[in-house]
Amino acid sequence: MRYQISGKQIDIGDALQTHVQDELGAAVAKYAERPTDALVIFSKSASEFVCEATVHLSTGLTAQAKAHSHEIYSAFDKCCDKMEKQLRRYKRRLKDHHRERLQPVELSGASSYILASDSGDGDSEPESLQPIIVAEMETRIPALSVGEAVMQMELSGLPVLVFRNEGNKGLNVVYRRDDGNIGWIDP
């Protein structure tokens, strides 16, 4: 597994990098057979350290965790525990479905845009109905079953996930509803 360990305006020493590789590698190896890479970012927010970890699996799924603590090692350990819990749930769901993906998830390209928010006070009329594009990026749309899409959405902590349904090859959306349930749009 490839590791990318960095800090935002924090110097990450060799001891912390070794600790991250050993602990995260052991946690991920328990539940994921073929992790491809891990990204760990440390930052500081007021008096707390923040650790954000993202692990990409060869199946195409991504697990993310984030934790805060007053000590940098403690922040990483909490983050690692959250990651391990997510991967344990992921593996249990795979066993419950009696299906293991033999082929990697097929990804298709798409454009992703970030639009400027309305900074007005709400009383004034906008000059035009065309939104202002702040950024344009390339994104990937995975080909998943509905169950895998829900699992991916929960693992990554996203409120919405757009995916290509393996059953009918159409674009579908799963999202977290206000009542806590999961919604599925199949046009």
TrEMBL record:
Pfam families: Ribosom_S30AE_C, Ribosomal_S30AE. Keywords: Cytoplasm, Translation regulation. GO terms for molecular function: ribosomal small subunit binding. One of its GO terms (biological process) is negative regulation of translational elongation. SUPFAM superfamilies: Ribosome binding protein Y (YfiA homologue) (SSF69754). GO terms for cellular component: cytosolic small ribosomal subunit. It is found in: Cytoplasm. Residues 130-183 form the Sigma 54 modulation/S30EA ribosomal protein C-terminal domain. HAMAP family: HPF. Required for dimerization of active 70S ribosomes into 100S ribosomes in stationary phase; 100S ribosomes are translationally inactive and sometimes present during exponential growth. Belongs to the HPF/YfiA ribosome-associated protein family. Long HPF subfamily. Interacts with 100S ribosomes. PANTHER family: 30S RIBOSOMAL PROTEIN. This is Ribosome hibernation promoting factor. It comes from Roseovarius gahaiensis.
